[in-house]
Amino acid sequence: MPKAKVNGVEVEFEPGMTALQVAELAGEEIPRFCYHERLSIAGNCRMCLVEVKPGPPKPAASCALPAAENMEIFTNTPMVKKAREGVLEFLLINHPLDCPICDQGGECDLQDETLGYGRDDSRFQENKRAVEEKFMGPLIKTVMTRCIQCTRCVRFAAEIAGVPELGMIGRGEDAEITTYLEGAVTSELSGNLADICPVGALTHKPWAFNYRPWELKKTEGVDVMDALGSAIRIDTRGPEVMRILPRINEEINEEWISDKTRHVCDGLMRQRLDRPYIREKGRLREATWAEAFAAVAKRVSATTPDKMGLIAGDLQDAESMKAAMDLFTALGVKNIDCRQDGAQLGGARESYLFNTTILGLEACDALLLVGTNPRREAALVNARIRKTWLTGKLQVGLIGEAADLNYGYEHIGAGPASLAKLGAFGKVLKAAANPAIIIGQGALTGPGGAAVLRAAAKVAADHKMVRADWNGFNVLHTAAARVGGLDMGFTPRKGGKDVAGMIEAAASGKLDVLFLLGADEIAADKLGSAFVVYLGSHGDAGANRADVVLPGAAYTEKPGIYVNTEGRAQVMGRAAFPKGEAREDWAVIRALSEHLGKQLPYDSLEALRARLMQDHPTFGQVDYAPGASTAAGFDLKSVGEEGALSDKAFAGALSDFYLTNPIARASVTMAECSALAISVRRAPLAAE
Amino acid sequence: MSVRRLAKDQPASFAFAPETLALANWWIGKYPAGRQRSAVIPILWLVQKQDGWVSEPAIRAIAAMLNMDVIRVLEVATFYTMFQLEPVGRKALIQVCGTTPCQLRGSLELMAVCKDKIGAKDHLSADGDFTWQEVECLGACVNAPMAQINDYYYEDLTPESLAKIIDDFRAGSAPKPGSYAGRHTSEPEGGALTLTDPALYDGKAGKPIKSLPNLPKPEPAA
Predict the structure, then answer these.
(1) Which of A171, A180, A181 minimises the CB distance to B79?
(2) pTM score, whole prediction
(3) Which residue among A515, A619, B1, B206 sits deepest, i.e. has the most Cβ atoms within 10 Å of its Cβ?
């Protein structure tokens, strides 16, 4: 490897690195505004100036300077300091002095660099420029006078988000960042625009004037809005979650998160269940825990196990599901299910995991999407596909709704029948070194789901997608709790009913007691006269129908294990406490178990986790995705069930991306986004 | 220069005229496949030639034609001040040079004439016939002060001659471009002082050329 010297210290670097990267290898911090590791190099802020030998006797922009063998880079000479001070003085010429009212204050790159390179006064006597605000949608607040024209946002929109709607118009002093005709940014990753803005020009509109960053307590967490388990940081002030930001996890979300992940947090303070309720004479009344437990125990003791059912929702942590499953199994209940949408999944672990892994997609060269719109169902999988597609190595085929995915693809067909005749794309898959298939939930729900899964497995087998070092068979989940549920066997016992069966039985009076563990995505109004117990955090469809409401904790309020679609178990910390009298879900179930006479054998979360990991070892493999390591033993022939493939087009897995769960439905921001998305869909030119 | 925005009132649609389309395709054909967007500036020029200005529907039409993102075309159109983003006078677009040499020679007076006869700078006159602008150096300093009117340079202007030119345009005639100080191009006033020998121009002073330099040597006869 070539060598260079940074401030006299020799470092080895990989060919192709820039002077800035080499300096960072040597541990030197280079100030920058426009440079961002994940974006193309613009080189227009000039803050990263360094002195380089051999070279002209003037500072050079290190972000755009390829490092060369024997190059000497100086980052702390008087010339460098003076040059950077000059650059910063120019940047501050037109930057307003409104830090006290700026939401970026305290986490602003410009503030930080000014501390190091700023003058104590201004030599600029002329007028500062002012720029009109620009509309960029419900999530981005703009104060464009603060903009320093780094163009990070323009590059992010064009490169990562794949919505080239932002641009810099005009020139010189009159250059302005705007969307085309000030339309809303139509990306599901738009919140990241405000994250990468180094100044306060783009900030988060829903959080404007709500907090100062130094007031917030930061907790590392895992996102549950989709099944990816994106790494997030939950910032709280007292009991309230003020904001959710991405953390870096190269294997899942790099450093981005979707808008839903980020802005759902206002839903955590609305529609909350903060005490138990019991339905009397058709109305819910406030009750004590003891009353609520007694009411449940009374109805449970009055019926038989075959007339009871348990359904787990999409946002549940593994611990509460395990506790509920243990309790109901002890009661002899066979009607247990965690697949609210009726996805026909289960069996061998590889048959329902995203085996390629999200990082592994970067090695993929031919990808078949079946019944999925990853842009909506898993925005960061879509971003990863786009990233790979941009290299020019990946070809994508799609069976399902022909949506705008931000990359080019060949549309093969709309329904399951197309799996049998891939046409020209079949040749692409055959010729590919690392072919993969992604099956969405839209293809797997309903009675034909198992047949589609079998057909997809046949495509995978025919095109050699699974081999010892590569597993290209992927199921893309939309529910954060689903893989954990399937891992622990949260599915109907032999002779038990699934979700559809339970609802049908309840409607016809054959089910007496139905326990909903945070389950809101079911036809709650069609449960007949069944006695419904709802344990969850939000007053949504489930609580609305329930006869007894047990208040639980939202995902930010309990430590929990979530298994993402790759089969990666991740542990979440508690950022805030449950509201009012609400308790962590597992503790509620543990307390209820005493009243039902089947006391669960764990008194602490640690004991419950130990039991969980003992019964289901995969939960102990924290932060580990099996990927291709289990590919050798994976029998594609046993996946799914034989059946006829219909010609009916795949239904989308999500009817409304922004309103998929009770927390999102309680969020005002998500409602705004949803309304905007619907209006954009209906009238594509309305914004012009 | 000032902040450049698209005009408030935009036409509902834009259509390429057949001759514009033919020229646009000629420009596109100059670039290798996949690089069609290189033709964006020539095509913006052609559109401006056709309509007199660049409208928002035209920007979208160009983006569609070149398979570009529409914001990228808008960036180009707003970057270059030669692209008119608002409708300009039907009869004349007067661009008075305001850079130092012209200003020293009296361009401020020319602008006063324009203001008087046409109206505010950068705005369409009330009758829709004229627009005048102040522009940066047009590269005809030796004939200062000057103005570009439509496609031609009108040089050595005085407030009186510019007023007459505007009146002529208003009357529907096309005044002659060039110097209004009675000189030929940028010759000294009163006629040329050097290179006046007629022999220079009738071929008498020429000497026969025996051989052109750097010609390949003829092959020796075998």
Answers:
(1) A171
(2) 0.91
(3) A515
